[in-house]
From TrEMBL:
<dbReference type="InterPro" id="IPR021127">
    <property type="entry name" value="CRISPR_associated_Cas2"/>
</dbReference>
<keyword id="KW-0479">Metal-binding</keyword>
<keyword id="KW-0378">Hydrolase</keyword>
<dbReference type="Pfam" id="PF09827">
    <property type="entry name" value="CRISPR_Cas2"/>
</dbReference>
<comment type="subunit">
    <text>Homodimer, forms a heterotetramer with a Cas1 homodimer.</text>
</comment>
<keyword id="KW-0460">Magnesium</keyword>
<comment type="function">
    <text>CRISPR (clustered regularly interspaced short palindromic repeat), is an adaptive immune system that provides protection against mobile genetic elements (viruses, transposable elements and conjugative plasmids). CRISPR clusters contain sequences complementary to antecedent mobile elements and target invading nucleic acids. CRISPR clusters are transcribed and processed into CRISPR RNA (crRNA). Functions as a ssRNA-specific endoribonuclease. Involved in the integration of spacer DNA into the CRISPR cassette.</text>
</comment>
<dbReference type="GO" id="GO:0004519">
    <property type="term" value="F:endonuclease activity"/>
</dbReference>
<keyword id="KW-0255">Endonuclease</keyword>
<comment type="similarity">
    <text>Belongs to the CRISPR-associated endoribonuclease Cas2 protein family.</text>
</comment>
<dbReference type="InterPro" id="IPR019199">
    <property type="entry name" value="Virulence_VapD/CRISPR_Cas2"/>
</dbReference>
<keyword id="KW-0051">Antiviral defense</keyword>
<protein>
    <recommendedName>
        <fullName>CRISPR-associated endoribonuclease Cas2</fullName>
        <ecNumber>3.1.-.-</ecNumber>
    </recommendedName>
</protein>
<feature type="binding site">
    <location>
        <position position="14"/>
    </location>
    <ligand>
        <name>Mg(2+)</name>
    </ligand>
</feature>
<keyword id="KW-0540">Nuclease</keyword>
């Protein structure tokens, strides 16, 4: 059976409560390959995308918090600013 394809997304959230903020950070970092503050790069299969959205909907208060998952176009060139290092696309990722 072929392995599910991963797609690059940006996961971003704005959470008003400190406890929910910590929970959201912990949840997204379980999938993240990089990020800063409340915006993270995540490579997701369709199943993982559904899990992440479901987990975040359980954590967040829909009246006070927000969450965005933005699919990035894989055809675009990666540019880094400052002392950034260009991302490497390894053959595998560890999610745990």
């Amino acid at each position: 059976m072929p392995e599910a394809a991963r797609v690059l997304y940006l996961a971003a959230y704005d959470v008003s409560d400190a406890g929910r903020l910590r929970a959201a950070l912990h949840c997204v970092r379980a999938y993240a390959t990089g990020g800063q503050k409340s915006v993270h790069e995540v490579w997701l299969t369709d199943a993982e995308k559904g899990e992440l959205i479901g987990d975040m909907s359980f954590i967040l208060d829909e009246d006070d918090d927000s969450f965005m998952l933005i699919r990035l176009d894989p055809r675009q060139t990666v540019h880094t600013l400052g002392l950034g290092i260009a991302p490497i696309d390894p053959d595998w990722f560890y999610l745990g």
